[in-house]
């Protein structure tokens, strides 16, 4: 008897009714690795009053039940027969089933219950006074883990819309030319005269230009590229000089790729004035304030949070809030021009102010295409105040990496899990020997019966029952006659072999 083999199954069974094994919780049959071809798998055994069968927890095969020294077993025909008319248990006939062997499936394998990693068994908790404190610590740990997970999710959601700061976007418009008359060019070239109009923009860091004029591909900047700030760009050329394609249009929605600048190249040797219209793509969205609202707030184009904060600051500094009613304020002459009322509630400001907001006007730039003199030609620039995300990518990455690195906590969790596993093993071992101490004889009988069935499963013989074969009633069943005939039909083949003398 090896108690260690039975330990994993100590706590997986429920109490059995009277007449079954006295200690079923200590033994559990293993399931065969493949379905066995039972000889009488097509038949259904009739349930009789004098037949008692105990099913294995993991396999639907007959098991010997031990009770008060008397053994009874369910009837199963030998596996050497492939079919029969009927099956009789203890001399009583049963109706045959039309089921085929291939239609029968083995019992579903039950998954072994996974032991809890940090929970102390309930039976062992009574013997461990410290288990109550340990349970409280587990509860505190679960609360902390939930809080950290929630905060981490909130931080991740916040980083999807990062904080922004105002920076100056400087837009440059200039042109270059080649092969023009009077210029210092190679006279042997056959290329026609041409020019290129270039529009580029960069974020100024601390008011300094990060690149020299004339270079679209400047030094790599951590800020978004120029095209990410442009919603729509239209370039108008002289229609008399370029009648076929004098309007060039670029839209951000049609070109997902980001660019540092744009270039329009044409053939020509005549100077003219090109017009560039830029519609900015402000993130967050900006609005142009009406003249009356500009007079109050002192801003022309601004985002919704900023102009709402400016209105509140205006009311607070001039003490226009109504005493005793914090939800309303008085309107001075400047505010009356905007809202048209003497008193107004703060909740109505958002609705009232919508009539004073419009989309920002496009930026209108004019540049004269020069084909002589210095190259590149032109020194036109335009500064636009834009919002750019704060660069905290490195800090956030290191922050999340530090949250994931919990080597010390993982080491403690491993030690706790190992201790809990050892407690489980000791509890199962104690239950095993406690069952033996209560009734040694019945415990040994039940253990032997369980191990005998396990041995049959391992050997592949799942249908024969030696206990039934000892009884004469076993050979009075209807399938015996068919079995004898088959046996006699095979016997001449054995008798034909020469006998050794």
Describe this structure in words.
- It contains 12 helices and 17 strands.
- It is of the alpha+beta class.
- The strands form 6 sheets. The protein has a 4-stranded antiparallel β-sheet, with no helix packed on it. Strands 8-7-10-16 form a 4-stranded antiparallel β-sheet, with no helix packed on it. A 3-stranded antiparallel β-sheet has the order 12-11-15.
- Helix 4 runs antiparallel to helix 6 (333-339) and helix 9 (407-438) crosses helix 10 (440-459).
- The longest helix is centred in the C-terminal third of the chain and has 32 residues, at 407-438.
- It is elongated, with a radius of gyration of 46 Å.
- The protein starts with a helix and ends in a 6-residue tail after the last helix.
- 17% of the residues are buried.
- Residues 1-110 have low confidence and may be disordered.
- Residues 1-101 are annotated as: Disordered.
- Residues 14-28 have a biased composition (Low complexity).
- It comes from Cinchona calisaya.
- Residues 282-359 form the DM2 domain.
């Amino acid at each position: 008897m090896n108690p260690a083999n039975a330990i994993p199954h100590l706590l997986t069974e429920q109490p059995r009714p009277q007449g079954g094994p006295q200690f079923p919780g200590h033994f559990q049959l293993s399931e065969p690795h493949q379905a066995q071809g039972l000889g009488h798998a097509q038949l259904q055994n009739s349930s009789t009053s004098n037949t008692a069968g105990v099913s294995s927890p993991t396999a639907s095969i007959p098991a010997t039940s031990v009770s008060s020294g008397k053994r009874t077993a369910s009837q199963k025909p030998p596996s050497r027969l492939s079919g029969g008319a009927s099956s009789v248990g203890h001399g009583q006939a049963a109706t045959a089933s039309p089921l085929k062997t291939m239609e029968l499936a083995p019992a579903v394998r039950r998954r072994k219950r996974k032991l809890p990693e940090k929970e102390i068994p309930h039976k062992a908790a009574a013997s461990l006074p410290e288990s109550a404190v340990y349970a409280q610590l587990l509860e505190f740990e679960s609360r902390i883990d939930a809080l950290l997970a929630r905060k981490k999710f909130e931080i991740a959601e916040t980083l999807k819309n990062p904080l922004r700061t105002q920076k100056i976007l400087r837009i440059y418009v200039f042109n270059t030319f080649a092969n023009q008359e009077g210029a210092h060019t190679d006279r042997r070239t056959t290329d026609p005269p041409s020019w290129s109009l270039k529009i580029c923009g960069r974020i100024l860091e601390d008011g300094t230009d990060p690149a020299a004029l004339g270079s679209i591909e400047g030094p790599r900047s951590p800020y978004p590229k120029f095209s990410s700030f442009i919603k729509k760009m239209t370039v108008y050329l002289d229609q008399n000089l370029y009648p076929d394609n004098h309007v060039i249009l670029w839209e951000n929605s049609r070109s997902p790729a980001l660019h540092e600048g744009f270039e329009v190249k044409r053939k020509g040797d005549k100077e003219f004035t090109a017009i560039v219209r830029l519609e900015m793509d402000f993130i967050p969205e900006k609005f142009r304030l009406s003249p009356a609202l500009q007079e109050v707030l002192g801003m022309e184009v601004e985002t919704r949070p900023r102009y709402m904060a400016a209105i509140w600051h205006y009311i607070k500094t001039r003490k226009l809030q109504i005493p005793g009613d914090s939800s309303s304020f008085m309107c001075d002459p400047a505010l009356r021009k905007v809202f048209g009322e003497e008193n107004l509630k703060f909740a109505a400001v958002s609705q009232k102010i919508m009539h004073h907001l419009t989309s920002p006007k496009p930026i209108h730039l004019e540049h004269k295409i020069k084909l002589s003199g210095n190259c590149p030609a032109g020194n036109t620039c335009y500064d636009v105040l834009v919002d750019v995300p704060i660069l905290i990518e490195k800090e956030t990455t290191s922050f999340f990496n530090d949250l994931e690195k919990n080597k010390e906590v993982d080491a403690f969790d491993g030690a706790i899990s190992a201790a809990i596993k050892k407690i489980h093993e000791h509890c199962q071992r104690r239950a095993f020997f406690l069952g033996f101490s209560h009734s040694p004889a019945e415990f040994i009988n039940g253990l032997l019966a369980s191990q005998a069935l396990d041995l049959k499963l391992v050997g592949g013989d799942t249908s024969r029952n030696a206990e039934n074969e000892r009884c004469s009633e076993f050979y009075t069943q209807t399938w015996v006659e068919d079995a004898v005939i088959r046996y006699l039909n095979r016997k001449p083949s054995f008798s034909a072999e020469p006998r050794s003398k």
